[in-house]
Amino acid sequence: MRSQNIGRVLGIGLRVAGRVAGQRMAAGGRAGEARTVGGASVHGRAAGKTAKGVARGVGGFLRPFCRVGGIVGLQVMGVLFLLPVAVFGPTLWRARASWSQGPDHHLFLVTAVVIGVFLYLSASSFWRAGKR
């Protein structure tokens, strides 16, 4: 989830909780004396502003952790993409003698393609982590 989405979710939840608390405070005090301005209670507006401030604060606090988490995730994926290269590397080395013709020609070509794809995925993952 992006930081804006988390902040939005937290803000909506806090606004709803603020409205409920404001309504209960207004009903718990003197009945019928809850001030309203433009159809909304004054307590509800204050709770909405507080919720917005809290949501912005939480979003600002979590932003660096989301960035670092994304970088670490990309690096982990780069390492995971290197595993098939390590697994198929010996097969490619054994079949290198029949790269153009021979009994293991197709095995060599398929293994070379698999290693090429996974090397590309690993390198691009590390490159993207470095750009962040």
Biggest beta-sheet profile: 2 strands, antiparallel
- Shape descriptor reads rod-shaped
What separation lies between the terminal Cα atoms? 17 Å
**Sequence of secondary-structure elements:** HEEHH
- Count structural domains: 1
Spatial extent as radius of gyration? 29 Å
Q: Would you report the number of β strands?
A: 2
**Beta-strand level of the residues, as a percent range?**
under 5%
Sheet/helix structural class = mainly alpha
Give the helix proportion (percent range).
Answer: over 70%
Average the pLDDT over all residues and give the rounded result. 80
Number of separate helices: 3
Regions with little confidence, pLDDT below 50 for 5+ residues = none
Widest sheet: strand order? 1-2
Characterize the structure shown:
- A two-stranded antiparallel ribbon has the order 1-2.
- With 132 residues, the chain is mainly alpha-helical.
- The chain has one domain (3-131).
- Helix 1 (3-28) runs antiparallel to helix 2 (42-94).
- It is rod-shaped and about 90 Å long.
- The longest helix has 53 residues, at 42-94.
- The protein has three helices and two strands, in the order H-E-E-H-H.
